């Protein structure tokens, strides 16, 4: 919970967190090392100096660290795991659905554990998805279309097998499809960051919500076009909101455009923890205002009520969370004590 | 002499663009080293991450190769990329004069030319956004869409503004869009003038493309600096 100077309470749902294991012991090959190191470069590139972690801690952190960072110092009330397996790079999954679920059960109401699937697993993967949906009560999945799989360097949501998996999601009550758009997608001669496949999938499955994580960067322009046409496409701010520190003007321009093209109801906050710490992200976001020229150019303002939506209300709607009820439930839980201790 | 030849190579590499960022590889810090040994030239390129798209990397390698070979005195050019997930494949492919689709036969269908064209179109829009920003200092909105190539060439005569204008015109010609003196200065990718009532939306779209370019450029610069210092 973030409290404004006027006493307004802002309920915060962090839409994108991870509890990863990128440690050397868990790396299967050089790609595993390069993957976590690339994350670390992002961390170093965009974090304020006082929030920089040593490399070792960054590759693998423990439960207490995460709980304190999110719910203790980070103002976060609820958080959503967006795991990615990357089992071609790591021995145990980089993001681990079962391990996350253990925490979801241990701290009721605090965490939502999303799953993932890989359409290249065929029939067997459909069964696995069903098993996971039922065992872990999945409401959402994180898809990493650039994930390697044997000889394949990625897939598209428009592939026939991906469509079958999305149909299965619908049938299993998995409504929220978080799509990461990242490098190295097959076929390589096309634009690796192309977001067009989200357009196809969103049209084919109007009942599903497609949250494009990292707002389709580095294809923000294409993403905004798709989102204008597809009402079930959302913007996940993870990564983008880290620019608020080093490049506040870029951040302002991005917010101005997102508000112009998508509107205030389709933008979701995400720290991408442990890439960035929610404390500084939330504080900077709450005190942020669009510069006057950008307000004028975009015709948009970032008001308190819009900030509330981005920080929690929009995600609450997608995940069926009643914020007032959640506040009462969480007020006395074991994590609330952590928050008190943190002051 | 080596020093002059080094400079000559640097100079031709200034024409090699990152297709996505629409900026020369020299400005972006992607040139890791240039070694001139008589008539033999080695150029090593580097990129911000291990994961940067191999297709863009290959376009830059090919363009650098052509640029270096365009110098009369160069007998042998050896262009390579370091620290990349596909370094070995790309470098070997380039040495053997292969096309991209032959290097990645399993994963690529067709060639990179449509990708190049796609990003030339984006570059055109980004450059037009830069141009409109300058034009709006001089003219108001209804007027700005009606100006001719000739009128704008005269008005944007000073070095800073003429550079923006020339960059825009150059990409316009690359894309085969007519650029005669009495053509409209502002023209869509389809070669059509922009109607008054469409300008606001169109201008928003251009700014988004430009913002995307600048954002990517900044991110790439930041990651390159973290990776290699500087």
Automatic annotation (TrEMBL), chain A:
PANTHER family: BLR3681 PROTEIN. It holds the Pfam family Amidohydro_2. Keywords: Hydrolase. InterPro entries: Amidohydro-rel, Metal_Hydrolase. It comes from Sulfobacillus benefaciens. SUPFAM superfamilies: Metallo-dependent hydrolases (SSF51556). Residues 13-321 form the Amidohydrolase-related domain. GO terms for molecular function: hydrolase activity. This is Amidohydrolase.
From TrEMBL, chain B:
Pfam families: FeS_assembly_P. It comes from the Bacteria. Coiled coil: none annotated. InterPro entries: FSCA_dom_sf, MIP18-like. Residues 7-78 form the MIP18 family-like domain. This is MIP18 family-like domain-containing protein. The lineage of its organism: Bacteria, Bacillati, Bacillota, Clostridia, Eubacteriales.
